[in-house]
Specification:
The complex is a heterodimer. Chain A has 13 helices and 16 strands. By secondary structure, chain A is of the alpha/beta class. Chain B is α/β, with parallel strands linked by helices. Classes of the chains: A alpha/beta, B alpha/beta.
Chain lengths: 386, 313
């Protein structure tokens, strides 16, 4: 099998090359920029037919993607942090217009203070915008998730935009070994884009984005909610089909040595990789610990999470984001999943790694130690200097 | 130039039944613009009166493909449609020869929509951006914009005992757009439909970005009686407050009445006629604020002279 040494951004750009979308609109922002730089090379060298638009802002990038998608084109973009924040208004509109736009988010802290490094506060803030969100742990997953994103977003039962999230710098800039699909296999897996009532069908004019009074707005939101909730089963189908072409098996969540574990940590993104090392190290010392990685965060896999936590003594939920005045996003969802399914593990929140604060194996061992000793508070700030 | 009879036989692209006010100039302008091409058209619309009133779900007054996504991004949205067209045409998935037009108010052009508009023009998309300039945020209830004239009373720059309406002159957005060096930009008025349709036709066929800034009298916001819309628009031109001109591939041309005024074949009316025609300026007729009326006249004269110089180059 072919192997490449590439970083996460280059891996995403490679999927775009293989998919050859009709339109790409983007604005540079660290740590996403390598994606659009690499893709610009493909455009400049005629390796794709994509119309590539260097927009004057992220707000316009998303607006261009919406216009292109409504017109009947497959549209992609990428952003991070402030760029995602600047798109905010259009995120909701893209979702409500049911535009299957594929966007890579290189997760980066939000200003202020300005900081270019990894945390999940950008995408977490957009969790209610109506976008599907999937997170990758490493370069391979960034690649695989990116390819699968097209199939998920464009599925006729869903037709919702999707964020393919990868950790800024940790995944976007780190060079790892990647096993890409052959171009033909990737292209066939994703397939042709099927427009729905495209604007460019001038013989059948349609109005997109009309004004809703209270008599209709609620129903349109309900339809969105139904599409989102039906996405879980579609995502699982897409994962299965991807396994057939790639040999790589994915699920909504990934459990690692959790079956007989007493103590479990749940995380998203690259931290889940470090967590596996931590679990292995602690297992060698005889501790019954395990790790869960959330791959699909929106829609949230409540049942799967609750099932994986049944019978555990204690659970640490790792949030690389902060929600001022409330519990952090992943923690809130995990506890909600437990409550509804009568899972009674003691569950605590760890906020960690904000603004790219490095979190290594030894830091994460502290989490399990505190869980096991009962010293963990309900809300913990891992490694913060007082 | 097509005759009125021929116009009446053209397909109706924006139908009756929309919910714009009686006397609103916007549907008049939009229909005139859409008469500027016989080719299929896709319309992008910024948030505003025009969008709200023509698209109330489950109805639509649009017989052509139409998209609204937000307020500040009519130009970006139409950019997206246009690049999709280029991409799909290249692949043989779209066969028609389509034209693209964006409609926005002055807020969606001069203020919040300016960045997206400037970006889209710089990128050279083939589209025409039409500003229907009613000189304030009318959809939200007549608030001041960057297009509001000096001295005009709005709900956020009311005429009070200390401040006589808006303190500033409007931005000269048509010149700012022309400074992008685009193929075609023009000012028009719905009272002269021939001039407007001709300009729209040039804009549609400009082969790149085009900009049409149209004065759009608003009976509600400007405080005049609904039947006077066309007369008020005409007055804007006859006072030279709103000169009719075009920037056509680098050349400045005065057109229609403005051309005749420049040639001395038509009287240039004093600005006080304009101020008298609308309730939003009525405080300026008080001797207390005469200096403001004088300033407005001086500014009109200065801008007019500048345009005369440009058109002679």
């Amino acid at each position: 099998m072919k192997r490449l040494a590439v970083n996460g951004d280059q891996a995403v750009a490679l999927t775009w090359k293989q998919v050859d979308p009709d339109v790409c609109a983007s604005y540079p922002i660290t740590p996403q920029t390598i994606i659009v730089e690499a893709f610009s090379d493909y455009v400049a060298n005629g390796e794709v037919d994509t119309e590539y638009v260097c927009s004057e802002s992220e707000h316009s990038s998303m607006s261009i993607c919406i216009g292109a998608s409504a017109a009947g084109a497959r549209a992609v973009t990428a952003t991070a942090s402030a760029g995602l924040a600047y798109m905010w208004e259009m995120l909701y509109i893209a979702a409500s217009m049911r535009m299957p736009i594929v966007m890579t988010v290189a997760n980066r802290a939000l200003s202020g203070p300005i900081n270019i490094h990894c945390d999940h506060s950008d995408a977490m803030g957009a969790r209610d915008s109506g976008w599907i969100q999937i997170y990758g742990e490493n370069v391979q997953e960034a690649y695989d998730n990116s390819l699968m994103s097209f199939r998920i977003a464009e599925h006729m039962d869903i037709r919702l935009p999707i964020m393919n999230c990868l950790d800024g710098f940790i995944v976007t800039h780190a060079i790892e070994s990647l096993s890409p699909l052959d171009d033909e296999v990737a292209k066939n897996f994703v397939g042709e884009f099927k427009p729905v009532l495209p604007l460019l069908d001038v013989k059948h004019p349609h109005s997109f984005g009309p004004f809703d009074m209270p008599e209709y707005y609620y129903e349109h939101k309900y339809q969105q909610a139904m599409a989102m909730s039906s996405a879980l089963s579609v995502i699982k189908e897409v994962f299965k089909e991807y396994e057939k072409v790639s040999g790589r098996k994915y699920d909504l969540i990934e459990t690692y040595r959790t079956e007989d574990a007493d103590y479990v940590a749940i995380s998203i993104g690259s931290t889940a990789g470090t967590m596996k090392q931590v679990v292995d190290d602690l297992r060698k010392e005889g501790h019954k610990v395990g790790s869960i990685k959330i791959r699909v965060f929106r829609p949230f896999p409540y049942q799967e999470v609750a099932k994986a936590l049944e019978g555990k003594k204690a659970v640490a939920v790792m949030d690389r984001a902060i929600s001022f005045g409330a519990v952090s996003p992943l923690f809130a969802d995990v506890r909600s999943a437990e409550f509804d399914n009568r899972v009674h593990a003691r569950t605590v929140s760890y906020i960690y790694g904000l603004g790219g604060r490095d979190v290594g194996v030894e830091d994460l061992k502290v989490v399990f130690r505190e869980l096991a000793s009962g010293n963990a508070k309900t809300i913990n700030y891992l490694g913060v200097k007082q | 130039m097509i005759s009125i009879k021929e116009m009446a036989e053209k397909p109706v692209r924006l139908t009756e039944g929309h919910r714009l006010c009686a006397g609103c100039s916007e549907p008049i302008i939009a229909k005139q613009v859409l008469l500027g091409t016989d080719k299929p058209v896709v319309v992008s619309n910024a948030t505003g009166c025009f969008e709200v009133s023509t698209s109330g779900f489950p109805y639509s007054a649009w017989n052509v493909p139409w998209i609204h996504s937000a307020f500040e991004n009519a130009a970006a949205t139409v950019s997206g449609v246009e690049v999709a067209y280029t991409a799909l045409k290249k692949k043989g998935k779209v066969k028609d020869d389509i034209r693209f037009v964006a409609f926005a108010g002055d807020g969606g052009t001069y203020d919040i929509g300016f960045q997206a508009l400037s970006g889209a023009i710089e990128r050279g998309h083939q589209f025409m951006f039409v500003c229907m300039n009613n000189e304030a945020y009318m959809n939200t209830g007549i608030q001041r914009s960057g297009a509001t004239g000096r001295g005009a009373a709005t709900t956020t720059c009311p005429s009070g005992t200390c401040i006589p309406g808006k303190r500033e002159f409007p931005k000269d957005i048509t010149k700012i757009i022309a400074a992008h060096g685009l193929p075609y930009a023009a000012q028009a008025s719905p009272h002269n439909y021939k001039d407007l349709i001709e300009k729209a036709a040039k804009g549609f066929e400009a082969g790149g970005p085009a900009f049409l800034n149209v004065i759009a009298p608003c009976p509600r916001g400007w405080r005049y009686e609904s039947p006077q819309t066309i007369e008020v628009a005409q007055l804007a031109v006859e006072t030279c407050l709103w000169p009719l001109y075009e920037y056509d591939n680098g050349k400045w041309n005065l057109t229609a009445e403005s051309k005749r005024i420049a040639e001395g074949k038509k009287e240039k009316r004093p600005i006080v006629d304009w101020l008298k025609s609308q309730g939003r300026f009525k405080h300026l007729l008080d001797p207390k604020w005469k200096s403001v009326a004088d300033e407005i006249q001086a500014n009109v004269d200065r801008k007019w002279d500048e345009l005369l110089r440009l058109s002679k180059q």
